[in-house]
Write a structure and sequence with these properties.
5-stranded antiparallel sheet, single chain, mainly beta
Length: about 375
């Protein structure tokens, strides 16, 4: 059968094959960290040439299965300034900024169910003032973690935020219901929060209907996409006073994925398999043994000692080459005159004694250089 192009000309067999070839894009897989890693954070990077991609996404949903997590849900009236949770007992301070009344009403946000909400009858949330002059909550964690807040009936033109309590501009919010996409109705927002910092949770310009607030200590989930055969880097950053105890990875079938890592375990790499990969790490108290001011040791010379002319064999030419260099300072580009190849007596200086040892080795293969003894 003859295949013709649009202009009516016949296509060759080769052109026909090219035109009918089906190109299937290589599938990308997901490398993702587990939720709730404590005392440090993980970052993922796709290092493959031409596809280098920093951590692609951050999932900030709380790990509520963690024994240290807390989840307050509205069930009664709350009083402004009265602690719902305290750091001493719960690992965080959660305080309503004003009196709010509970309204019973079955609500749900994704997979979370609530029996009602609290709201103020007249006070709106805003950043111009603090305390009971605005509705919402303040939250102060004792450790880093993920904070999530839930509201109902959020107006599309209202800004639901988690923000540092000292900020006065909503553009400084850690997370906002207005960006990157507008949230409305029954919804939630999450943010990675830092130990000891106080945050305001509020619906700006609205009384807000607060369903619940949860907190899970530990680092947020991060993930990156990579194709099979590409290299993914794991960067583990311990909190102050901690070191990396372990880093591990497994594919979706539970098979261990081999990691190559540095001595402090802060940087690891692996080759992406044809499966999703889950990464976990643990951090323990301790001080890093790494001295940033210490120069790394030079690798030991692993070539042929005495092979000054660098041709892979010992001959009288090596002795002559070294003597020429010692007497004139001149050498060929490929000569080994600055390594253990030439400094056979190991005293740090090149001289006639080194040349003599090389000649001795040429004449007697059982002879040992001083640095070999």
């Amino acid at each position: 059968m003859t295949v013709t192009a649009a202009d009516g000309t016949a296509l060759s067999a080769e052109r026909t094959a090219v035109c009918t070839e089906l190109v299937v894009p290589a599938r990308s897989y997901t490398a993702e960290t587990v939720a709730g890693i404590k005392n440090g954070t993980l970052a993922l990077t796709n290092l493959s040439e031409g596809t280098e991609e920093e951590t692609g996404s951050v999932s900030l949903s709380a790990d509520l299965a963690d024994d240290d997590s807390v989840f307050w849900t509205a069930s009664a009236d709350v009083t402004g300034g009265t602690y719902i949770y305290t750091q001493a007992e719960n690992g965080c301070d959660l305080v309503p900024t004003c009196d709010m009344t509970f309204t019973k009403s079955s609500q749900s946000v994704v997979d979370q169910s609530f029996t009602g909400y609290v709201a103020h009858s007249s006070t709106n949330g805003y950043l111009a003032s603090t305390g009971r002059e605005r509705s919402g909550f303040t939250f102060t964690p004792a450790s880093d973690g993920v904070l999530t807040a839930y509201v109902s009936n959020l107006g599309a033109n209202k800004n639901f935020v988690i923000i540092d309590d000292t900020e006065t501009s909503e553009t400084k919010a850690l997370v906002s219901s207005q960006t990157p996409t507008v949230l409305s109705g029954n919804t939630s927002i999450s943010a990675a929060v830092t130990a000891g910092t106080t945050y305001y949770i509020g619906v700006l310009g609205s009384k807000g209907r607060y369903l619940g607030i949860s907190f899970s200590p530990g680092a947020p989930v991060v993930s990156v996409l990579a194709k099979s055969g590409e290299t993914v880097q794991i960067t583990a950053t311990p909190n102050d006073g901690y070191v990396v105890e372990s880093v591990s990875a497994a594919d979706s079938e539970g098979n261990a994925v081999e990691l190559t890592m540095n001595s402090s375990k802060t940087v690891s790499t692996f080759i992406m398999p044809e499966a999703d990969v889950t990464i976990t790490a643990s951090f323990i108290q301790g001080e890093s043994s790494d001295d940033p001011g210490e120069e790394p040791e030079e690798p030991a010379y692993d070539g042929l000692i005495g092979d000054v002319d660098n041709n892979g064999v010992l001959t009288a030419n090596d002795c002559a080459a070294l003597l020429h260099f010692v007497l004139t300072g001149e050498k060929k580009d490929n000569w080994n005159t600055d390594s253990e190849a030439a400094d056979t007596d190991g005293n740090g200086d090149l001289g006639a004694a080194d040349a003599a040892q090389i000649l001795s080795k040429v004449l007697n293969s059982s002879y040992k250089f001083s640095i070999e003894e």
